[in-house]
Amino acid sequence: MLGRMKIDGRPTRTIVPDADGISVRVIDQTRLPFALEERRLSTLAEAAEAIRIMIVRGAPLIGVTAAYGLAFAMREDASNDGLDRAVATLAAARPTAVNLRWALDRVAGNLRQTASRERFERAFAEAGRIAEEDVASCHAIGSHGGRLIADLARERGRRINVLTHCNAGWLAAVDWGTALAPVYAAYEDGIDLHVWVDETRPRSQGAALTAFELNGHGVPHTVVADNAGGHLMQHGEVDICIVGSDRTTATGDVCNKIGTYLKALAARDTGVPFYAALPFSTIDWSLRDGVAEIPIEERDGREVTHMTGRLDDGGFATVQVVSPGSPVANPAFDVTPARLVTGLITERGVAEASAEGLLALYPERRAAA
Ligand SMILES: CSC[C@@H](O)[C@@H](O)C(=O)COP(=O)(O)O
């Protein structure tokens, strides 16, 4: 299946069902930007491991991969116990992105009404539908967010500088992405724009993945160290910040890659609009206080102490960058309170970051609220 996003001019998607009808192929994101390699996933263990070690990452893509993982599990043990065990295994792979739990609940809910012998086919088809819906949501996010960039370009009559953090592009979803979808939409509409790409230590998703994506599309961009954003904003070099989200509360608090909160603080201080772009599957309607309630994944300290990269001679090396013996901490996400968020760009339009703002776009949630 062809995607809209491109690598070397070739349309590509991050996850594609294989012709054998029992597996999927994914891009191994641990190898980017220096090597483009695919992995085939066909078992529960492979899907859970791919999510855990971040062969696939980004909230929407984690959700789709988990849905396929549940399908694979149904080939191995289609009993109710097998289903419960598979849900638990996949849910534990990464705790913060709520799209994972959302996708598991959707597929598992469907399977509980389904006879065991039909469960694999049913789950595989449902995972495919979740992937297609994600593409449609991201495309719509692109249209709504692209208009924000176009409005700024009209208003300011010059090139628009967008700052983004981590990778919330098509590599983090199935196609298009969330935070980068508006960038792609505006760029394809001929808007003159440039993207400041936060490097995003410790795993460098900005330097490795966002830069790789933008390069693939010819979108003008510059990679900056994580600490540069505040300075750029103070000097009028940023017109708008757009980030993704791993979980957004019913009140509009935005959980995203560690460091996002600091950018939102700098944006507020300098009057730069700060948006989060996310599909409905990223909204956790059960939570009202993101700082207190969202579980923050703590990852291996080795991501902080070591870095891997390409040597000048073309070889690869992992090197230690922290003083030996120093303890490290590695919280992977932080929460930006709704009061610092100018708006939430969703597939239904741009919402104010508040309970009322979200309910205005998702009125069907009013009864539950
Ligand atoms: C469209 S993806 C939104 C988020 O998932 C993204 O901004 C992010 O924080 C990804 O974190 P990662 O740890 O790389 O999975």
Automatic annotation (TrEMBL):
<feature type="binding site">
    <location>
        <position position="205"/>
    </location>
    <ligand>
        <name>substrate</name>
    </ligand>
</feature>
<dbReference type="InterPro" id="IPR037171">
    <property type="entry name" value="NagB/RpiA_transferase-like"/>
</dbReference>
<dbReference type="InterPro" id="IPR005251">
    <property type="entry name" value="IF-M1Pi"/>
</dbReference>
<feature type="binding site">
    <location>
        <begin position="256"/>
        <end position="257"/>
    </location>
    <ligand>
        <name>substrate</name>
    </ligand>
</feature>
<dbReference type="Pfam" id="PF01008">
    <property type="entry name" value="IF-2B"/>
</dbReference>
<dbReference type="InterPro" id="IPR000649">
    <property type="entry name" value="IF-2B-related"/>
</dbReference>
<dbReference type="InterPro" id="IPR042529">
    <property type="entry name" value="IF_2B-like_C"/>
</dbReference>
<feature type="binding site">
    <location>
        <begin position="57"/>
        <end position="59"/>
    </location>
    <ligand>
        <name>substrate</name>
    </ligand>
</feature>
<keyword id="KW-0486">Methionine biosynthesis</keyword>
<dbReference type="InterPro" id="IPR027363">
    <property type="entry name" value="M1Pi_N"/>
</dbReference>
<feature type="active site" description="Proton donor">
    <location>
        <position position="246"/>
    </location>
</feature>
<protein>
    <recommendedName>
        <fullName>Methylthioribose-1-phosphate isomerase</fullName>
        <ecNumber>5.3.1.23</ecNumber>
    </recommendedName>
</protein>
<dbReference type="GO" id="GO:0016853">
    <property type="term" value="F:isomerase activity"/>
</dbReference>
<dbReference type="InterPro" id="IPR011559">
    <property type="entry name" value="Initiation_fac_2B_a/b/d"/>
</dbReference>
<comment type="pathway">
    <text>Amino-acid biosynthesis; L-methionine biosynthesis via salvage pathway; L-methionine from S-methyl-5-thio-alpha-D-ribose 1-phosphate: step 1/6.</text>
</comment>
<comment type="similarity">
    <text>Belongs to the EIF-2B alpha/beta/delta subunits family. MtnA subfamily.</text>
</comment>
<feature type="binding site">
    <location>
        <position position="94"/>
    </location>
    <ligand>
        <name>substrate</name>
    </ligand>
</feature>
<feature type="site" description="Transition state stabilizer">
    <location>
        <position position="166"/>
    </location>
</feature>
<comment type="function">
    <text>Catalyzes the interconversion of methylthioribose-1-phosphate (MTR-1-P) into methylthioribulose-1-phosphate (MTRu-1-P).</text>
</comment>
<keyword id="KW-0028">Amino-acid biosynthesis</keyword>
<keyword id="KW-0413">Isomerase</keyword>
